Amino acid sequence: MNLIKLQDEMHEWREKNFPDSYAGHQLLGVVEEVGELCHAVLKLEQGIRGDEKELMRDERDAIGDIAIYLMQYCAERGYCFEKILGTTWDQVKQRDWKKYPTTGKPGNPVAAPSAEAKEIMDAAIGYVKAEINADAVCDSGLDELLPSSEETLAVDEMWRQHERLMDVVSKYI
After folding, report:
1. What's the pTM value of the predicted model, to 2 decimals?
2. Number of domains composing the chain
């Protein structure tokens, strides 16, 4: 599979189907799909809401969707996904976490993430936690009460976190 050709095909498809979309939409799609991946993993671990085969299919689907959104994000930003992946892998494979458990490399201090990166990560984590919590409340059977105050609060919190994430991401795009 040629990732450059695939990225170009995806970009053309997205331009045709979603002409007003921009990089921020792609990034939010990544976060949404990470939430779906977490949902599938959680349900697999809990052994509820689907059999193992179905949840593993959902897990693979989310992984594929994450890759697609990342490739589309790269296309919007003018980045080559294949080059980024190759360059990053070349760096990662040089690390020896067994020999250098703190940094993976000798004499290489860990760089602190930027304030912007921390803000985006905190917003993304808040959204994913809220989405999982809302799902857990709905799974508890409380949704049969049409709707319970707990369910409404959980879904409201998920949307608040989603809006916060969109606000934070839009500042940096």
Report:
1. 0.62
2. 2
